[in-house]
Amino acid sequence: MSKAQSIPRSLLARVLFRSLFLQAATNFERMQNVGFGYCMAPVLKQLYTGEALQTAMRRHLEFYNSHPYMSAAVLGASVRMETQIAAGELPAIRVSSFKRSMMGPMAAIGDSFFWSSLRPLSAAFAVASALSGILWAPLALLLLYNLCHITVRIWGISAGYRMGEQVVMEIYRVNLPRFADLAHYVTAVFLGAAGGLFVAQAQRSKVALGDGLEPILFVVLCLIFLLSLRRKISMPRLLYGFAAGCLILVGVLNALFPLL
Amino acid sequence: MEIVLLTYDLALISLIGGLLSLDRRAVGQFMLTQPIVAIGLLGLVLGDLSTGIALGALVQLLFMASTQFGANVPPNELVAALSIGGGVLMFGRQEGGSSDAVLFTIAILAGTPMATLGRSLEIWLERANLGIAHRADAAANAGQPQRLMVLTALGLSRTFGANAIIVAVGAALVFAVLWGTRSVIGGVIAWSITAMTTYIVPALGLAVALSLIRRRRALALAGLTFTIITIALGHLE
Fold this sequence. Notes:
The structure holds two protein chains of two kinds.
Chain A: H1 9-19, H2 33-47, H3 50-59, H4 71-86, H5 93-131, H6 137-163, H7 167-174, H8 177-204, H9 213-230, H10 235-256
Helix pairs in contact in A: 1-2, 1-4, 2-3, 2-4, 4-5, 4-6, 5-6, 5-8
Chain B: H1 3-26, H2 35-45, H3 49-62, H4 77-95, H5 101-111, H6 113-141, H7 147-181, H8 187-210, H9 216-236
Helix pairs in contact in B: 1-4, 1-7, 2-3, 2-4, 3-4, 3-8, 4-5, 4-6, 4-7, 5-7, 5-8, 6-7
């Protein structure tokens, strides 16, 4: 048994860069497998030749489906494990079972923190900023979101490589989902602010109702839509339904009480 | 109608659509495909940033729930956003002014179905990528890891090309609807549509965004903030 090879930083940086393309060829059969193989390719070429290289490549073209950002940690750990496999310190099957066991939990953490919390928070902040007249609102979204995103990727690759299989303990220690709760509250504040700004726009518009009726109408509409969405009525159905209803209602009212 | 300008704008929108579509899933996912960013970018490129941002904010809220969890393929918010934004901005360049509230709602009504079409396209692309996965297997059996780079590039180029085409079609469609209805819409219809843009579309967008929040106290906080901002802005005026 030889000692596990050390992977140079430049090669890890290549794996990190390639991790951006994890989903480039997503397919229904094995999902992100081509992307995962593509990420691992430079390391496998360094460690193996001949039949061992073919076997190693096949290992990393197995089914893989997880959150793209959190997969950086899986990649880093897989790199570390491959150096150990190449040195005979680990059986080859360990990296396959490690990937299989990490897919689900990493997807759950990434979905809950990034897709369900950070993305809506950044978007709500950008919308509220845009309504306040700040034209660089989209930049704020990108900055806020990608600061976290890129940090997680860089940290994932380096922690995964440093700790190998033990990276899972470190990920649970960081406990990203605990920030998800806080993100929901902050998102709610920005959405409430956006609502207030929409009402202010309505009060200045050609269709202002006067007598402070705009906020009431807005809240009533919001509640109707929210309850409908919770009953699984889709956004397009509500949009077209209320558009048609509005046209009919205004047409009928104008026919009865001509004002327009 | 200036056909040369229209063709140029459509080509630009198509190119931007193809490039941004890569970010949606294939490359990086830096959130460039969020409607407020995508339409804002279109607005910047086509010389009407404020319209792009204002329209982008509305579309962002409407499609806030379009999230890709696991293997689920949601409606494609980018295709819808660029169709809507592209149509409005092209119309503005032809007519010399595009921030009318009436245009926003007509464009949203015309462009929203493009999200479903975009979703079908994505499903088709995932099926087509199965061929790439099998070729990757062949590369592994031949011990040629460098072929994975070519296969990845093939996947990217398919995504780019298909989305560039569908975005161009969508933007042209929305523009055609705006162009066809511009002289027809007046009086009570224009008032109704302005009312939709002012009340219905923003309320619906906010409801979509609020539906993502599952904590009751957070919803109460949204209501409290709404009340404070409404009163504060009312007093300021």
